[in-house]
Specification:
Layout lengths: L2 H22 L5 H6 L6 H12 L2 H14 L4 H25 L4 H8 L3 H33 L4 H51 L4 H4 L12 H12 L11 H16 L2 H4 L8 H19 L2 H16 L2 E2 L5 H9 L2 E3 L7 E2 L10 E3 L4 H8 L4 H39 L5 H24 L5 H25 L5 H22 L21 H19 L5 H11 L4
Antiparallel strand pairs: 1-3, 2-4
Amino acid sequence: MDIQIWTYLIVGVSFALYIGIAIWSRAGSTDEFYVAGGHVHPLANGMATAADWMSAASFISMAGLISFMGFDGAVYLMGWTGGYVLLALMLAPYLRKFGKFTVPDFIGDRYYSDTARTVGVVCALIVSFTYVAGQMRGVGVVFARFLEVPINTGVIIGMIIVFFYAVLGGMKGITYTQVAQYCILIFAYMVPAIFISIQLTGEWIPQIGFGSQLADGSGTYLMDKLDGLHRELGFAEYTAGSKSTLDLFAITMALMVGTAGLPHVIVRFFTVPSMKDARISAGYALILIAILYTTAPAIAAFARTNLIETVSNTEYDAMPEWFSNWEATGLITFDDKNADGMIQYVADPDENELIIDRDIVVLANPEIAQLPNWVIALVAAGGLAAALSTAAGLLLVISTSVSHDLIKKQIKPNISDKEELMWARIGAGAAVIVAGYFGINPPGFVAATVALAFGLAAASFFPAIVLGIFDKRMNKEGAVAGMIIGTVLMLFYMIKFKLQGFGGGSQEDWWLGISPEGFGTIAMVVNFLFSIMISRVYPAPPSDVQAMIDRIREPGE
């Protein structure tokens, strides 16, 4: 069978599975809609958390970033993995013991203020919408190539699928759908990695193949071969970096603390029965995440090697079918500047004739390596599973922020459970529409867009949550001021240097040489400083709030 039929078959079966699970596990109460009733098994929650965490950025874009950036791209790997460890150790058990539905719920009760709750809602919406834009863009990229529809049409199809199981099932439906999505995405990621590792190095474990000699008997190591290819084309060596140490540190830190502040990841730990289960499920999730994250550098190196050897100094008319397929999507463009019919893929922008979107590296890799059609279709299903699983978690955060934290907690406190559930579903539906708009009009390629969401989470939520747990003296004035200052500062920097607002600016204008993806670290530090300083000027929290903090920090259930 050809790729098209395989894709329709595998993607169709996976979509039917998601919808079937959503119908089977549809939510009947707000408790089930928000936190799946709080009775999810730690292993199931670990799988769901891994799927929620491993978004389109992880599945589609991360290896693409590493493939094009080489050493510098490793910051995404270190930051996202390290951040999950930080979340599991420092925040998840305490937030589970607090026992609320949402992060703004924690902010509002901990800082005994509806103003703090509202600021938390606004921050959650900003972070979630920025993040979900990357997921919907990833859905569009997959559909554009493998179902041969425009990217915008692909985004709309993804919206319809997510709308169905997120609105119907809530957290209960999303959780069990994400368990299935984890199985699909990890299988889809590992199968081509194993195939290509055997092809290039003779090693069936990609992590070992990454550091092995090539299978051609030359005795050359894969990374030495890749460095040589880069030198020939004028690129910096793959194993060398060009970013400053300060910017590398800032990006890594922003991704780490941003991870620990992401509301759609944090809320997963509200779905298990106890603190102990929260820790266990975090451990399961970390192991399950590591399978993909330790494979990504290998896929990046395999893909970069195959790509350069396939396209460099090759006659355009002799390119294989995969090239024209991706060219049709607009994600590969060729401009024959010297009209010689040959593809010049070089570092010099004046001579380079080939532009390749980073988001296609993982998706195109099996085609470049000439793997079986069913493997290529499987990767498409995996990419969709990764994007849709995270999109659903984000949409739930958006809907619960509106229905629970705004309407139930502030606007209509006496609303019935049935009415609150209705508003949650309305909020999810509206969020799908807005997410689709951002997916059609994203501010950058998938991983860059997602990185900005991490910066926003670092600048807003992380200090408020950490200080809320570990600093009994932190009061509402300090927390509210810190969240507002950190968020506004991060938004200003992002809009100025990423979207060219406020007069715009180039890389030479970056403050302290720190990129927009890393500026969340600076905004976070500013948030911490202002929160602590302002909190010391105003009275300490009430005694009942301080007693609540002591209860959260007590060992045990």
